[in-house]
């Protein structure tokens, strides 16, 4: 019987480490549901891109590698963690295995009876969303850290200017 | 330059009329964003299926016909219509054309400056979500009205029993 | 091992039929969680009393009959039915059996794996919240339909005037 | 000591009857807080205009008559009526008297200890928001029913087309 | 005339200090409403237990001491503090006195006209929710700090493992 | 053609620096929409005053200087920044220019196609909401930092006591 994995991330932005992780999950499972977490956030330092922009990045990157057996689903954060697993289940195609290294996610899906596996490893020193955003803000090289399709989307949505401008401040919106 | 269409529906369930409409849109545009409207509703007579179940139906049906250039996005209803276009934009990959025959959707996207086209026609007498749900509830033939992949999903999620049971009542939940 | 039942109602107001139903459940189970549904509503024709007023009615009525093994929990309606069982579970002490005659409640708790039983019967022709509210509005006898403790609470919160006044209109709040 | 009145309406749109009512309240009180109710709604048949458009209509109409002692405040509907008075109090400058003929509003403010007066009368057969919207939709004369300043705002926001288009349908947004 | 006190806490978990405080309040008042604050939170380091689990702990602890004149009410945090007193009033049986040492709670209930008293003292060095959670996480003795009934509930809901696992991380949920 | 400016602030409280800024904007534009940001917050150290109290302060201060061409609009914070410009547009009379020095506000209105100008300068060392709140809390002189009309409102709503009491704690509400 075919097996579908769930993998949730913020993907701010989607980078080569994520790509590597998905490749490994796809080697273990038949299909993958990629949940875009914190879907409601955008235009802030830690979360510059909208859910739609992140959806576009991931879809383009996966298709450019020839993948088709994936489902991308934006998932909003709830502060009510006790119903979060139900919320995820109701928004996603059916899945059987959850990949996560995060204690909260692991605990919540374990209590709900799911099989929870450790996320496949990748080089976290080199690949991280924080690193990509910092490099963009500081005007350094960043495009080699993300799939070509992602770099293209970031440029199309004027992402470099967005990150640079909102990164100048950690104050209130007014 | 490539063109992406937006098409929003409730898809309760996805049926042959929807499939026909998507075929026609795909003939006019390069890509299509399929918004699953009223994403938060399920388990009620008019909206029996969760967003995740509808996502699964649509993806399976489109893939079984060989389509790949589509993006499926669950979109929750907001009562604050004035921000609804912004909400849709933030959850979806970029789109340029909106297909709709509904006056509200048309007006809101027109005021926001979008090109709005009439949805391609299909045989609405034969194909409608209401008709499919009624037939399931009454124990009549219904599988010929939906793609094979959809019928399979409905059976897998025990959809026939769900529709039959919740259809027996239009009262409060208690 | 002891068994705890869940019973959800709107209790607008709590009446002798509810009391009878609880007596029967308490004969079958060790403890009962009484969920006050639609907890956020009040001051409207169908839902005149606040959750706190309903809590007070039920607690006083049960205590005046000598019951102690009960837990009263206000539960707000969610429009997102797919997470409603999780929401109820997170707000209530643990329960194992759900009593309900309502198709929606039955279906949702069945899909979540609970044992669901039919609510014990009582004389619904005589006892109903609608009937009590109508009688209050029309100035007829109503106190014999509710436990004494409930009649006392309704008088204390000026419930007769509230029901009479808001019942004169079914228009908007302005 | 000066007295401030609260008057809440939907003002879809603001018409001559509202203007007359405000003139009478201003003769009895020193200042008036005009609450724009159902502030979150717009672009639907019963509520075509946004809170901002309604704010603009009222401010222009009152200023064109030379009034200055008024405060206009958009107020969103809450389904939780028990906290609605607190919500209104927190959004408005201090007021002492509430004008309303609506049973719900009257009851809620009375329970909170306010002096509640009947709204001053005006010719409701001639002046009503429903009548203005119907006339616009049917292409009849409507401008004589509203202050000149309001007619100007409705034309500026393309209100005639908005009402006409969304009025063609009472179906779902899709 | 009988007097009912309101006492609000997070009770993460309910411990001997809370028990002592309630004993003192019960000596001064006839009844007590125990509000479970931050009711929507659970499964995070500072708030590991659901409202339902906390309800169960408190009810079991009070009953094991023979108390009956209490009402336990889960109360969700609102960010809109100006309506919070109204929210609490609408969810709870009527109360006349508020016990609190917290400046915010004191101020809000004072502005609403309530009698506000200082919470009875207990040994805060020894008894605190933070201390209990830390000891559980570190594998130290903790059961002597809580009523027996509470220790039993924590073990039943697998609370030790939950606190230990989610305590290992202060990062995002993914 | 006349020009309307939008200026958003928290105004906790409205002080002489804000007044000076508004004078400069009014010299450049015909009308001004003053958005009261974070409208839902009050009774906390950083945001002691309700939206209604802030509305009253601003209106009284502007009127005492003879201004009339202004519109004051409470605007609630949304965590969903991608729809925030739409939200502001729907709550305010039409505006064409946005004054802001804040990177987030600037970026969001720029992406939406607005003309965004730097806020006029004023002496920020002397005039700031934080400074006024600190002085009130510490019992120092503060009335010279705000318009007379504002000082009067703060005294009327017992603002000095409110700020002093809630300022004693930065803990949870319980």
Find the biggest chain interface. A-B, 23 and 23 residues
Main beta-sheet strand count, sense and barrel state of chain A:
5 strands, parallel
Rg estimate of chain A, integer Å: 16 Å
Residue windows where pLDDT falls under 50 for at least 5 positions of chain A: 170-174
Largest sheet strand order of chain A: 3-2-1-4-5
Overall description:
With 174 residues, chain A is an alpha/beta fold. Chain A has seven helices and five strands, in the order E-H-E-H-E-H-E-H-E-H-H-H. In chain A, strand 2, helix 2 and strand 3 form a beta-alpha-beta unit. The longest helix of chain A is centred in the N-terminal third of the chain and has 14 residues. The radius of gyration of chain A is 16 Å and the shape is globular. The termini of chain A are far apart. The C terminus of chain A is likely disordered. At the A-B interface, helix 2, strand 3 and helix 3 of A face helix 2, strand 3 and helix 3 of B.
Task: Please give a handful of descriptors for the protein shown.
homohexamer; 174 residues; alpha/beta; disordered C terminus
Please write out the topology:
The structure is a homohexamer of 174-residue chains.
Chain A: E1 4-9, H1 16-28, E2 31-36, H2 51-64, E3 70-74, H3 84-91, E4 97-99, H4 103-111, E5 115-117, H5 129-137, H6 148-156, H7 159-166
Parallel strand pairs in A: 1-2, 1-4, 2-3, 4-5
Helix pairs in contact in A: 2-6
């Amino acid at each position: 019987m075919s097996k579908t994995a769930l993998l949730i991330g913020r993907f701010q932005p989607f980078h080569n480490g994520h790509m590597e992780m998905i490749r490994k999950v796809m080697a273990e499972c038949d299909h993958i549901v990629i949940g875009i977490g914190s879907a409601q956030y955008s235009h802030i330092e830690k979360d510059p891109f909208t859910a739609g922009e992140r959806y576009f990045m991931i879809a383009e990157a996966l298709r450019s590698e020839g993948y088709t057996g994936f489902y991308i689903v934006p998932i909003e954060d709830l502060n009510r963690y006790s119903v979060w697993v139900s919320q995820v289940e109701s928004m996603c195609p059916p899945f059987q295995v959850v990949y996560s290294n995060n204690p909260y996610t692991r605990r919540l899906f374990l209590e709900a009876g799911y099989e929870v596996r450790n996320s496949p490893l990748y080089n976290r020193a080199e690949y991280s969303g924080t690193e990509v955003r910092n490099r963009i803000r500081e005007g350094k090289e960043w495009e080699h850290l993300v799939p070509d399709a992602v770099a293209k989307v970031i440029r199309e949505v004027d992402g470099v200017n967005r990150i640079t401008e909102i990164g100048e401040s950690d104050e209130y919106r007014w």
